[in-house]
Amino acid sequence: MIQHPGNVFVVSAPSGAGKSTLTQRLVRSVPDLIFSISFTTRKPRPGEVEGRDYFFIDDERFDAMVREGGFVEWVEVYGHRYGTGRDWLNGVLATGLDVLLDIETTGAMNLRKVIPDARLIFILPPSAASLEQRLRSRGKDSDEQIRIRMHHARHELEQYQAYDYLVMNDDLELAYHQFESIVYATRASLGRMSPAARRVLEGF
Ligand code: ADP
Ligand code: 5GP
Q1: Which terminus of the chain is less hemmed in, N or C, by CB atoms within 10 Å?
Q2: pLDDT tens digit string along 143-168?
Q3: 107: in domain
Q4: Would you say 138 and 47 are in contact if contact means Cβ atoms under 8 Å apart?
Q5: For residues 73 and 89, is the Cβ–Cβ distance under 8 A?
């Protein structure tokens, strides 16, 4: 089990559902919330920055980290490996800040085993047709890649019942509002606020 004074949020979604759009806005807008930077063996896409989007490493280094138990969880998707670094996560959690992890469903289930009170959020596309439309309009994938992503999307969507919150990303503003509200509501939960409430009470 990983001890953590802050809140841990995990967000998953089929590719194209709007996860990057929502998470980037969330970490810009919500104070004291850190985006978890994973390690990956895939190559950076145009515009991606080392140490901001991912730590880009080669297969040898990934293998070594797996052997040394350096990952809290790791998976292989679309022919590349992705993992949450143990030292990195422990270091951030020790600061007491909240952390948001953008990981796929298998990783989310594995993370829950070591951080049972992590809040799991799934972002739903409004329909299969709109997901395909968003993938096409994003213009990053070939027809073949879109076919593979749509197939994988079904597999990811089948896991929705394991999540604590489902955010339907149809109207972007409404979806963002719900997403942000989950973070603030978790911060205000009884378990999190009890120490503060006790301190207030002691002053009477
Ligand atoms: P993901 O990170 O889940 O793969 P993106 O955030 O890149 O998805 O979004 C995929 C595409 O859909 C982008 O072009 C984005 O601008 C668009 N998009 C995101 N949310 C909405 C929405 N609510 N309505 C319409 N288009 C959206
Ligand atoms: P992309 O290549 O589009 O950045 O990411 C592909 C998929 O890998 C996304 O679903 C993303 O959430 C997932 N992913 C990114 N980092 C990690 C990680 O550290 N662990 C797991 N399990 N999935 C990850």
Answers
A1: C
A2: 998 999 899 999 999 999 999 999 99
A3: yes
A4: no
A5: no
